[in-house]
Write a structure and sequence with these properties.
alpha+beta; 5 strands; single chain; 9 helices; 45% helix
Length: 187
């Protein structure tokens, strides 16, 4: 049996996959990650331990293993996470990229950290602004007034007004959906 296989341009280290499969039989809860650069699978009971010190995008979460898993099931999970779509990253990777935007105070740093994601710097900058701009600026980015936004998305005007005045904050996922529906993101 080969020590490593390659799929979608990424290596998968079968020895580390088998190691996780054996560890999962111990019935403990392990947080597992796939490292695309090396092909290794790392895991630990502490969710942050395997990826501490890594940049976003250097590790792909494989989820939590608390029951016995076969090596084949683990490889299938890796493939689900790295299989490319016609848009570049998978939907889950895209969500991870977008959801990390609020942790960055600078759009250039955000775009630089996610440069390996197959998204253009322009799209990454747009994602950062969607997630981080004050809601009033977000409305301007969409090209909508508060009334137009309320009507277009069937959101109560008072909610839009509270978001624009900074009294409340809309959920991060709502901003992304609004941007996609308004045609700001071509994903």
């Amino acid at each position: 049996m080969a020590d490593q296989i390659h799929t979608y341009g990424y290596p998968i280290d079968l020895a580390s996959v088998e190691e996780l499969a054996q560890a999962s039989r111990r019935r403990r809860q392990y947080h597992a990650y796939y490292l695309p650069a090396t092909g290794r699978v790392v895991y630990d009971e502490d969710p942050a331990a395997p990826i501490r010190g890594m940049l976003p995008g250097e590790a792909v979460s494989l989820g939590i293993y608390h029951r016995a898993a076969t090596a084949q099931q683990i490889v299938r999970r890796i493939l689900e996470q790295i299989a490319p779509t016609k848009f570049g990253p998978t939907a889950r990777q895209y969500a991870e990229i977008y959801n990390s935007a609020p942790r960055y105070s600078d759009p250039d740093a955000y775009a630089d950290d996610w440069r390996l994601s197959h998204l253009s710097p322009a799209v990454l900058h747009t994602l950062w602004h969607i997630a981080n701009d004050p809601f009033r600026d977000f409305l301007a980015l969409l090209g909508l007034t508060m009334t137009e936004c309320a009507n277009m998305f069937s959101i109560p005007y008072r909610s839009i007004q509270n978001w624009a005045e900074g009294k409340r904050t809309p959920p991060l996922y709502l901003r992304r959906m609004m941007a996609e529906l308004a045609g700001l993101l071509d994903v």
